[in-house]
Amino acid sequence: MVSKLSMGFTLIETLVSLVIISIIVTMSVPSFSHLWSRSQIDTVVDEFSNALYLARSEAIKRAARVTLCASSDGSRCAETENSWHHGWLVFVDTQIDLEDSAIRVYQANHSQLTLIGNRYLTKKITFLATGRITVLGGTIQVCSQDSSQKGKNIVLIATGRFRIDTDISCE
User: Fold this and answer.
1) 3-class state of residue 64 by DSSP
2) Are strands 137-144 and 113-117 parallel, antiparallel or unpaired?
3) pTM for this model (two decimals)
4) CA torsion 163→164→168→171, rounded to 10°?
């Protein structure tokens, strides 16, 4: 006599189970992609914030100008505006040779994100020995290429301090 437990699943039971699993997976994929995109934005904003803190503190500590600039190769500042998504570097601005004056290089290709600086922050941010920046201030907008996602703004003021605005509209 064969027990009912050892008979296994029928073909119909297996197909119904697969259909239910595929529906659940299909419904959860968009929320995972949204979560992944949000996580990338948070990571980039944290990395950029750390670079701002580092540049400002090094300028004060060294009593010298320290610059944070967009860099696509990690060894020199980018010539094109708004290439922050390739990475950036922090260096002492008083030395002639950039290789010797680099404090930290952030080389990350954030091709799924856009980092757009406004009029004053398209290529670089220079901190003076007092911790202030050389421009009046500005904003760097961090957004996903999916325009339906909310992004973040890094708002820098003339004193060298900044704040992060969340849930901004990306267009």
Assistant:
1) coil
2) antiparallel
3) 0.79
4) 90
Q: Kindly tell me the sign of the dihedral angle through the C-alpha atoms of 51, 56, 62, 67.
A: positive
CA quadruple 126, 131, 133, 134: dihedral, nearest 10: -80
Please give the share of the chain, as a percent, with pLDDT higher than 70.
89
What does the alpha-carbon distance between residue 130 and residue 56 come to, in Å, rounded to a whole number? 9
The domain limits of the chain are: 32-169
User: What CATH number labels 32-169?
Assistant: 3.55.40.10
List the structure tokens of 152: 């973040």
Among residues 129, 136, 131, 128, the alpha carbon closest in space to that of 156 is found at 136
The closest alpha carbon to 70, from 117, 135, 127, belongs to: 117
DSSP 84-112: GGGEEEEEETTSS-HHHHEEEEEE---TT
Tens of pLDDT, residues 3-45: 555 567 788 888 999 999 988 887 776 677 778 888 889 999 9
H or E stretch covering 141: strand 137-144
First to last CA, the chain: 69
Q: pLDDT at position 62, please?
A: 92
Widest Cα–Cα separation across the chain: 90
